[in-house]
Design brief:
It is a single chain. This protein has two domains: 183 residues, Vaccinia Virus protein VP39 (Rossmann fold), CATH 3.40.50; 63 residues, rRNA adenine dimethylase, C-terminal domain (Helicase, Ruva Protein, domain 3). The longest helix has 12 residues. Strands 4-3-2-5-6-9-7 form a seven-stranded mixed β-sheet. It has a two-stranded antiparallel ribbon with strand order 1-8. The chain is α/β, with parallel strands linked by helices. Helices cover 36% and strands 19% of the residues. The radius of gyration is 20 Å and the shape is elongated.
Length: 260
């Protein structure tokens, strides 16, 4: 298996899609854009034509000479594994930053959690993602895609699927379609969470066995008497599942059970 296939890299080749993405990101003078996975420069070079500065992170050393030879004075190339990179080392304090990337499928999940962990440094994100991952981030309650990832991102970001991208727009062609999403940092989170790690563990608990009801998932950890009080006070059906709750209800249940 080639290194490119191992990394799950699928390079964007459709000029119409590239133009739509660049226009939507709308890089402006004065803005810093960080691109994850520059590859062959399909997004890198158009971004560099419009932004004040582009920092392109690329792990595969074979692309570095090609990215550099274009000679953009405002383009900085960092040869690094983005999962091992600390954004605070490259993002200036109080600088508006847009993070952009056609994310390799193999690193999309750990990278999204890295973005979440370092969200205080980030203003906006624009990513091409595997369709199913994009739909999970942007999912609404009462859908099968609604999951812990949806909740933790939507508390801190306004998340939206901007448009879908056919697999035919990439080379080599992947087996699935993609989606272009925007994540705009909220000025204030929707809800205050004292311990994000504790909250995420709670989400994993209630979504852990999706075929089971919320009641059954909660019973694995919490006293039946406490659960009964919650179901009565919130007027919840005993057969309701976690994905049928809205974020406000989930926060309320969490606060009661964990005392935050």
């Amino acid at each position: 298996m080639s290194k490119r296939k191992r990394l799950g890299q699928h390079f964007l080749k459709n000029p119409h899609v590239i133009k739509k993405i660049i226009n939507y990101i709308n890089p402006e003078p004065g803005e810093l854009v960080i691109e994850i996975g520059a590859g062959k420069g399909a997004l890198t070079f158009p971004l560099a034509k419009r932004a004040e500065k582009v920092i392109a992170i690329e792990k595969d050393k074979k692309f570095i000479p090609f990215l550099k030879e274009k000679g953009f004075p405002n383009l900085e190339i960092i040869e690094a594994d983005v999962l091992k990179l600390n954004f605070s080392d490259i993002i200036p304090v109080n600088k508006k930053v847009k993070i952009v990337g056609n994310l390799p499928y193999s690193i999309s999940s750990p990278l999204l959690f890295k973005i979440y962990d370092q969200k205080e440094l980030i203003s906006e994100c624009y990513f091409l993602l595997q369709k199913e991952v994009a739909e999970r981030i942007c999912a609404s309650p009462h859908t099968k895609a609604f999951a812990p990832l949806s909740i933790i991102f939507q508390i801190f970001f306004s998340a939206k699927i901007v448009f879908y991208v056919s697999r035919t727009s990439f080379t080599p062609q992947p087996k699935v379609d993609s989606a272009f999403i925007s994540l705009i940092k909220r000025e204030e989170p929707l809800f205050k969470i004292n311990s994000e790690e504790k909250f995420f563990n709670f989400l994993k608990e209630i979504f852990g066995q999706r075929r089971k009801t919320l009641l059954n998932n909660l019973k694995r950890k919490y006293p039946q008497s406490e659960i009964n009080k919650i179901f009565d006070s919130l007027e919840l059906d005993s057969l309701i599942r976690a994905e049928d709750l809205n974020i406000s209800q989930i926060i309320e249940i969490y606060n009661i059970l964990e005392g935050d």
